[in-house]
Amino acid sequence: MHLRSGDAADLAVGCTLLGSGGGGAVTAGQLLLAATLAARGPLPLVAAAELEPTARVACVGAVGSPTVMRERPAGVDEFVAAVRALERHTGHRFDALQPLEIGGVNGLLGPMVAAATGLPLVDGDAMGRAYPRLDHTVLQGIVPATPLALADPGGRLLIMQDAPRQSVEPVVRAVLPALGAWAAICLHSGTAADYAGAAVGGSVSRALTLGRALARRSRDDGADFLAAAGAAVLAEGTVDEVRRGRPGSGDGGVATVRLAGDPLGSLRLDFADEYMAAIVDGAPVVTAPDIIGLLDARTWAPITVERLATQQRVRLVRLPAPEELRDRQARRPDFGLAAYGMAPVRPEEVG
């Protein structure tokens, strides 16, 4: 399978949906990917298991403020610089690249960097959705995050040689202000065998399939899309209130939706960088790691956390988390609500 320039729009829709409301705006990434594929030609999309077991693979993406990234748009050069810097540091040329996360803009930047470097793209990612922290990856404990390389649009490069898992996120966040609030990142350098056994497989092709199905749905009730996604509509209604934390605080917020056809019914949405939990009439119906899709009730377009507003007519959809995330959550609770500092909910409580 190959990704082509014409696939960028559908992939962008799928990545937005898999972002569970977060992951950063995809518009710039979509344009970069389409332009790079138009210039470089189709990009091979391969499973990690199809590569030689000893082939070298790394994750690539962006880290930092999505808001600043819109003000200081990404280019190709800083991502290529991060990849080449980590190659020099490790002494290994990479044989393939993989997106760091499939949710949001990183699901598009990964393919863009692979195309720009002439490397095949592994059909997978390290998160299966969007998560707010670098240590929320299924590769942790199998393929160390460090050494890693950071590169900013101004040409600055930084190598982090070695750090415990719990130190990677705070150290990277601490240096980002000096790099202009966001940077390209290349990390999790490992073998194809490691990736085949640990990464979330098939996530790029899943995003592309979801995007195509959503954009080309043939029925007003979205039945064809829902079947393709394995998704379920949980609620519909009108947004009555959106309460956000203080700007820049990272506190997230909560939204209240008045349910259609039930004047006393309500949906509560808790969110941070992504939608974390949905509660209908006091009962949780979906929580992380499952993917919470909030869609425009008329167009079915995904509504991200930052674009959530009162008076929108919305449809709540649950997409099941990849099995890799469920397996890891059983061993590491912080892949669920604990990722956002919330108490976990027992699985039987969300059906």
UniProtKB/TrEMBL annotation:
Residues in S-Me-THD-like C-terminal domain copies: 167-342
Name assigned to this protein: DUF917 domain-containing protein
SUPFAM superfamilies: CV3147-like
Annotated ranges, domain S-Me-THD N-terminal: 7-161
One Pfam family matching this protein: S-Me-THD_C
Domain of life: Bacteria
